[in-house]
């Protein structure tokens, strides 16, 4: 009897010891779990991974081709058709590359913008027209310049200044206004007007006739001086054929003025032109 009680007491003591040990282990486990939960919170649900929206991009690219119908040279009364490749690339609101060159906008503030430009002056060959025979060629040249503008809704007012490197080595300034606005979801209409002012080098190169040129060409000598040389008026239409395909047409009229209009090189003061191209927008 005493042996049985002794066994029972030993079993009870062992059971109590095991219970205490298990309770301590469980307590430590729960404490560790609670501590771990406090140290590493569950990350928030990433809803964007399940959205079907495409990420917005800050660039665009238009590639296309078309043609122009314009005077053979500035002042000609004869016209020619020329093919033109078209590449227009924009990145953010500070970089634009188009057929006229590269524009980098360094400053924008409340509608005002200031940009640097790199472009080109196409020059002129004496084979471009009968009246140019004997005047010599004007070489193709690069231009560097600046543009200041102010944007108010669909209207942009701007002024540019460009210096030709080599070629005619001329300085040209432009002051103008351009309006572009969507008429429908697919159609955008635009209109513009600008005045072009050129220095002595440009006027002499394109509209002057010196003694040697007069002897070779038979044209009278003529000195063209700096001033307002041309006023341009234009209208354009861009139509989105689809989400990516578009067609753009433009018609313009240049009016030669001052010493440019009076030059013996000029056959016609009114210089109309048209262009059209089809492009794909990526």
From TrEMBL:
Organism per entry: Rhizobium deserti
Any one cellular-component term (Gene Ontology): cell outer membrane
UniProt-recorded name of the protein: MipA/OmpV family protein
Pfam families in the record: MipA
Coiled coil: none
Main location: membrane
InterPro entries on file: MipA
Localization, UniProt: Cell outer membrane
Sorted UniProt keywords: Cell outer membrane, Membrane, Signal
Segment forming the signal sequence: 1-31
Family: Belongs to the MipA/OmpV family.
Presence of the UniProt keyword Transport in the record: no
